[in-house]
Design goal:
The radius of gyration is 14 Å and the shape is globular. Helices cover about 70% and strands about 0% of the residues. About 40% of the residues are buried. With about 160 residues, the protein is mostly helical. The protein has one domain: Orthogonal Bundle (N-utilizing Substance Protein B Homolog, Chain A), CATH 1.10.940. Helix 2 packs parallel to helix 4, helix 5 crosses helix 6 and helix 6 runs antiparallel to helix 7.
Length: about 160
């Protein structure tokens, strides 16, 4: 599996370690969804073939990334149903694949993993969407609205 070029952009931005892990999670979920790579292939190949692993070589950061990817994939049906419930007008299959990956990741982190506070998770998703959503204007706003609704429906706020 070849590098998808995300890492060079990440280095330039001076992001936190957790944000870098979330960005790699988003890319991994994109590869799982669109590229139809297996979870095993992604975990065995994606990070290892980056030009420079950087902070992802730190055990704590990689463990966070791996846990988030695994839990999102293993809970994908629940996550997609949660997103669909929160965005009544949108079927997840109609979303941009990158936006879908961001929503899946953040929804799983809020409802399954609960690693961080809900406002932090939502803010991280919005900030990642500002850089990677195909619709840099509407994408982050849409993601904010859906995740806020997810948090309210799940009584996480």
């Amino acid at each position: 599996m070849r590098s998808v070029g995300i890492y060079n952009k990440v280095i330039e931005m001076n992001f936190s370690k957790r944000r870098i892990a979330r960005i790699h999670c988003m890319v991994s979920l994109y590869l799982y969804d669109v590229g139809k790579f297996s979870l095993e292939d992604i975990l065995d190949g994606y990070i290892k073939y980056q030009d420079n692993m950087g902070v992802m070589s730190e055990e704590k950061v990689y463990s966070f990334y791996e846990d988030l990817v695994k839990k999102t994939v293993t809970n994908i049906k629940f996550v997609d149903e949660t997103i669909s419930d929160a965005s009544k007008r949108w079927d997840t299959s109609r979303l941009y694949a990158i936006d879908r990956a961001i929503l899946r990741m953040a929804t799983c982190e809020m409802t399954v993993l609960k690693h961080a506070s809900v406002p932090i998770i939502i803010n991280e998703a919005i900030e990642i969407a500002k850089y990677y959503s195909p619709d840099e204007e509407k994408g982050p706003r849409f993601i904010n609205g859906v995740l806020d609704t997810v948090a309210n429906l799940a009584k996480l706020k």
